[in-house]
Amino acid sequence: MPLTAESAAQQIQDRLKDIQQHIHIVDEERRRAENSISSLVRSLHATNQKVKPLLKASLMEASQEEATIRAALAKIHEIRSIRNERRIQARNAGNKEAIRRGALMKMVQLSAQTLPLFVGKLGERAPALCGAIPAEGNYVAKVGDNVAALAKGIDEEENWILAEVVQFLHRQNKYDVIDIDEEQKDRHVLSKRKVIPLPLMRANPETDGHALFPKDTVVMALYPQTTCFYKAIVHRLPQTATEDYEVLFEDSSYLNGYAEPLPVAQRYVIAYRPTKKGAGSGSGNLSSA
Amino acid sequence: MSGGPSITLKSQPIDGNNTGNAAAQQQQQANANGAATAGASGAPGSSVQAQTPGNAGAVGGGSVPAEGTRQNSLQRIQQRKQKVFNLPVPQKLAKLSMYSACQSEGCRCTGWKTPQENRHRDVESSYCPEFNEECRNASCRHSLRMHIAHLDNISSSSMDELLGAIIDMENLFMSMQRVEDEDTKKVYLYLFRLLRQCVLTRQQAVIRGPLGDPPFESPCITKAVLSLVFYKYNHLNPTELQTMTEVAKTFLNFLNHYNFESPSTRRGDLTHEDASNYKINYTRWLVFCHVPAFCNSLRQFETSLVFGRTLLRTVFQYMSQQLKKKCISERDRFPEDKRSIITQMPKFLEALRAELLKDDSPIWDPNYRPPNSFVIQQRKRHQEVAPAAPGASVASIGGAKRASVGEPLHKRIKKEPTDRCSSESLDDLPPDVVMRAMKSVSESKTTNKAEILFPVNVSRDENVKAEEQKRAIEFHVVGNSLTKPVDKQTVLWLLGLQLVFAYQLPEMPREYISQLVFDTKHKTLALIKENQPIGGICFRPFPTQGFTEIVFCAVTMSEQVKGYGTHLMNHLKDYSIMRGIKHLLTFADCDAIGYFKKQGFSKDIKLARPVYAGYIKEYDSATLMHCELHPSIVNTQFIAVIRNQSEILKELIAQRHNEVQKVRPGLTCFKEGLPSIPVESIPGLREIGWKPQMRPARSARPLEESSDPEKLATSFASVLQSVRQHTTAWPFLRPVTAAEVPDYYDHIKYPMDLKTMGERLKKGYYQTRRLFMADMARIFSNCRFYNSPDTEYYRCANSLERYFQTKMRELGLWDK
Question: What residue stretch is flagged as signal peptide (chain B) (predicted)?
Answer without folding.
Answer: none
